[in-house]
Amino acid sequence: MVEQPGSMGADIGAYIDIRTAKSPAVSPDGELLAYLSDESGTHQIWLKPTAGGAPWRLTDLPEPVGAIAFSPKSRDLLFTMDCGGDERHQLWLVPEASGLAVPLTEDPTTLHAWGCWSPDGTRIAFAANSRDKSQMDLFVMEVATRETTAVLQGVGYREAIAFFPDGRSLLVRDATRAMNDQDLFRLDLGTGALEPLLPHEGRAQYRALKTRKDGSGFFLVADHEHAFHALGFYALSEKRLTWLVERDNQDIEAVAVSPDQQRLTYVVNDEGWSRLFLRELETGENRELRGFPLGTIASVAFTPDNASVVFPLEGAATPGDIWRYDLAGEKPERLTKASKAGVDVSSFIEPTVERVGSFDGLQVPVFVYRPRAKAPAAGYPAVIIVHGGPEAQWTPGFRADVQYMLAQGIMVVAPNVRGSTGYGRPYQHLDDKERRMDSVADLKAVRLWLGGLSEVDESRIAVFGRSYGGFMVLAALTEYPELWKLGIEFYGIANFETLLETTGPWRKHLRAAKYGDPVADKDLLARISPIRKIDRIRVPLLMAQGLDDPRVPPGESEMIFSALRGLGRSVEYLRIPHEGHGFARIENRRTVFGAVADFLARHL
């Protein structure tokens, strides 16, 4: 239990120094694994022989690396990198995954969204807002010459998902209306003709699109005319979608196709935990792949020899590493061994899931993390953590700060209030626009439930969130000020009107689709903005903000800090230079989470 600053257990810095590995990619010859690791303090590219051997760092760049992708025909390795978290990613290439990186794009004012390699490895496709900062156009580049052609211009946000196998057309995903309301098209690169695919009534979202080598169609994960995401195949000649795997009340989140086109692997979201399956396409047989720790799996890929699948795995008690599963031997193997910084991770705690009834009877899923130490006589202090998004889900991934709190005797609960993903499309839309504050009422219900537990000290319950979760913190403190001991929020939304004026131009329409139109819904946006009720905040508040954040610009935090300071309230504010929507550098994570530990020690 946290009582006095001097009584803290292990310093939080040790927990923050735990490293992780993620984003694996296997070279086409199957001999080299590339992945991202923050061993050096920021995410850089590391390489490791798939047959075994010591890893080595490929890049040593001043900024963290984003996405990585091997050419389908060589070891040429493409990656993305922005500056200070500004999300204006540039495209870079390391020829043959050896030597120095060379830039493919060099416009720091433009956002480049990585797309795909052509089947022959000579071209790449990507989206960029160079023509108009509020619109994303599609481009194709000849890698050898850097010659770049705009192949699709228009209004809104769109992505280049894949070249079709003949290399003459692109699979395009369009999110002009909203990120969860998408359309698919086939773009003929010769004529510019745009053919609609999978027309639909209502909203749909398409993920994990994988073309077949014979050009007959593509596999996809979608909630097309479904409440949950299912796995299907779209046949181009017949214009027919056939569902292959549909799970009751569970989303499928990722899929990979074996190089010989005989098998699929796919990831199922089971109450937030990932389950990995193999499907034989000829027989339709499905079997679950087991033997690795509980956790979450963000992606999956076959090795070129069809014998194994490779995936990143992290769990609440398992810091992230890269794993391989031998399909014939049914044997999992951890390929990377990211540093644990001397921390005994065997003592880390997995959560359980409980349901809490909200004001209207809705059952809200809540992840509950209980400390190993026995509750003191007065009960555990507790922190409720609210995820961002809002279209996201708290899942039992690795959080160093959560495990630190548990080690200090602080109970942690993380709800998936209405509006969260993972529980079906109807649940996801229960907080849209005029129902925004219903999700804050869910948070109240969770707080009252938590305070009613005999093992919890009701007088010491805090609320913590980042981004949209930061808005939820501010909303909780202004709507229900009497319920909280303190608040912690990172880069939270204070005023939806100013957010929609200042967020990145390409994001404005997408955010308005979720929160409300700045003109038509002006009164609503004002009503739900915490800055309008800032005088209701009575408890200590800790804030942190990256000063290059393009999503929730610093002005949102500045106005909260200025208003609370003017009112004479207890507020502490960390301004972090050269960071965006998150803290990518180890020294900044130490600063921010060190402040969190100190704040909890003094106020909780």
Question: What does this molecule look like?
Answer:
By secondary structure, this protein is α+β, with helices and mostly antiparallel strands. Among the domains are: 207-339, Neuraminidase (6 Propeller), CATH 2.120.10.30; 366-394 and 402-431 and 462-603, Rossmann fold (3-Layer(aba) Sandwich). Strands 29-30-32-31-33-34-35-36 form an eight-stranded mixed β-sheet, with helices on both faces. A four-stranded antiparallel β-sheet has the order 1-2-3-4, with no helix packed on it. It is built from ten helices and 36 strands.
Outline of the structure:
This protein has 604 residues and is α+β, with helices and mostly antiparallel strands.
Structure characteristics:
alpha+beta, disordered N terminus, Neuraminidase, 604 residues
The CATH homologous superfamily of the domain at 366-394 and 402-431 and 462-603 is named Alpha/Beta hydrolase fold, catalytic domain
Residue-averaged pLDDT: 94
Alpha plus pi helix count: 10
Would you tell me the structural class of the helices and strands? alpha+beta
Shape: globular
Backbone CA Rg:
24 Å
Q: Alpha-carbon distance between the termini?
A: 9 Å
- Strand sequence of the main sheet, in spatial order? 29-30-32-31-33-34-35-36
Strand content: 35-45%
Q: Which blocks of ≥5 consecutive residues have pLDDT under 50?
A: 1-9
- CATH overall fold name of the domain at 366-394 and 402-431 and 462-603: Rossmann fold
Helix content: 10-25%
Assigned CATH architecture of the domain at 366-394 and 402-431 and 462-603: 3-Layer(aba) Sandwich
For the record, the CATH class of the domain at 366-394 and 402-431 and 462-603 is Alpha Beta
> How many extended strands?
36
**What is the multimeric organization of the chains shown?**
single chain
The biggest sheet, with number of strands, parallel, antiparallel or mixed sense and barrel status, is: 8 strands, mixed
